[in-house]
Each structure stands twice: as C-alpha cells, then as structure tokens.
Design brief:
By secondary structure, the chain is an alpha+beta fold. It contains four helices and two strands, in the order H-E-E-H-H-H. Helix 3 packs across helix 4. The mean pLDDT is 85.
Length: 88
C-alpha cells in the first residue's frame, strides 16, 4: 500500500528546493473515496526555514497546508496564492 502512495507523490518531489523545502499535497484516493494530505520535505533545507525567531517556518507550513486544501477544493481558482497570503 505504501508503494502506491510513493508513486502518487513522486512527481511533486522535484518541486522541493531551498526556497520551498516543504510541499503538502492533498488528493482524493479514488479507490476508497478518501482524502489524504501528503507532506513531502527536504530534511537538509527544512532546518533553514525554522531558524527565524518570527516563526517564519511555522507560518510557511501553515500556508502550504492551507494552499494544499484550497487547491484540492478549488482547482480552477487562480487567486489561491493571494488568498492564502491574506488568510495567514
């Protein structure tokens, strides 16, 4: 079962970089009609975003989660990035 999930999220691993060390992707499992959120991260670069005393790392993670959930629910909305930044 875990192998099938790895195949699903594998294309999103390439989106990880120093600026974006975390990717949260929310998707529907068509087999059992359940929704899953996957957290992908680069452990080496992840440390750097949590160095700030202003909680920038935590804010970044919350933004990614909100963006992932909204993207799942409203896939055609091009204003999601702006909306997420206004929410958080």
């Amino acid at each position: 079962m875990a192998k099938s999930y790895i195949r699903i999220v594998e294309p999103y691993v390439s989106e990880l970089d120093k600026e974006h060390p975390i990717k949260i992707k929310t998707m529907l499992n068509n087999r059992d009609n359940t929704i899953h959120s996957f957290v992908l991260y680069d452990a080496e670069d992840l440390i750097n975003i949590f160095d700030s005393k202003e909680n920038n790392g935590e804010r970044y993670c919350v933004n990614e989660l909100i963006h992932s959930i909204l993207s799942y629910n409203f896939p055609e909305d091009s204003n999601l990035v702006q909306l997420v930044s206004e929410i958080s």
